[in-house]
Sequence to fold (370 residues):
Amino acid sequence: MGCSCSSVYFISQAEPTLTLTLSRKRERGLSIMSTEPIKFRMIKLPSSSFSNNANTSEEPATMPELTKNLLGDTGLNVTRLGFGAMEIRGAPRGREVTPEQADTILNAVLDAGINYIDTSIDYGMSEEYIGRFIANRRDEYFLASKCGCAVGAPVAPAGQPSQHVFTRENVVAGVEQSLSRMKTDYMDVVQFHSSPTMETLEAEGALDALRELKEQGKVRHIGMSGTLPNLAGHVNGGAFAVLQIPYSALERTHEDWIGAAASKGIGNVIRGGVAKGEPGESGVTGRVSWDTFESAKLGELLDDGETRTSFMLRYTVSHPGMHTTIVGTLNPDHLTQNIAAVERGPLPENVYEEAKKRLAAVGQVPESAS
Fold:
């Protein structure tokens, strides 16, 4: 009682289901029972889920019940708030992150019930930390990463783009490296990074490589981390089940394209939904300026005691085409606050429309998807 622990699952065969008994252990990595009295929670899963690693269920076994959306036509039932693991990449492209910090935040994410984690090959230590600290909880989350990042390339200096190579060989090498780093047999979503054109993906077999990896069961759904001007081809090309798109009240460029993608059954993962954090709170470079928030007088629309970050998150989840928004943090308190904001739900319709009206008045408007 009172121990700081992660989860251990004891699996027994029953007919026609498996029963997972959740207990607790004193230290991660030790499959021992606590000698103190523990309350057990029972979870039933289909017998097809009986596996040491792969999870064929469309919904991981999370503990708290957070609000979920279907990720387009993928069948993945994802929490409305996901976790962006770029925040645990570490130096030199981000702030310093200790293994203890990564361990704490990743397990806090799962303990809170978040079931969608997004990372990338070129997010420093992120994939390795995921493998090190939460691979033993693989059935609790959907895992998304990126490909096209140059495998084995030196780390780009902070503020400069990483190198990307969209060849069959590099895509396959990247996916295999990610699987190894994260100690898993499969990824639920693999997205091409850096918004390449469809022509680029087809020129040297990159798209075909992901399709083959999907046939092998190593990738469940093919996605794209896309932006305009190439986003139009991604939405209309029919190749992608998932799109990761930047969007927030302070950057509305892709607002209409999110709706266009959703209308085609594409799952929408939103990044930058809180403009990469309040000033001074994030180690991410290139943070969107909050000047627009102030010039549009959005502060007048906040509820009593509501923070700007909370308002921004609720603005993002108000978009009817949004399925999950990934937000990174190292701070467990900020994580709790983000969850509370998203669980409050979308802004009231009149507030949402007034916010869009005020933003348009200061020049923050979407680009047409027609």
Notes: The two ends are 58 Å apart (CA to CA).
